[in-house]
Amino acid sequence: MVPQTNSKYGTTFGPSTELLSLLLSSFEILSKLADFIVGSSLS
């Protein structure tokens, strides 16, 4: 029973962590883009 629950958690937590890292990376890109826009508008 233990290996079955482990594999179940692996399939449920696998994609969610990938999605989280994808969200974090996209947020970093967005923040950099915002900094660039603010810097160009100020100058």
UniProtKB/TrEMBL annotation:
It comes from the Eukaryota. This is Protein AIG1. The lineage of its organism: Eukaryota, Viridiplantae, Streptophyta, Embryophyta, Tracheophyta.
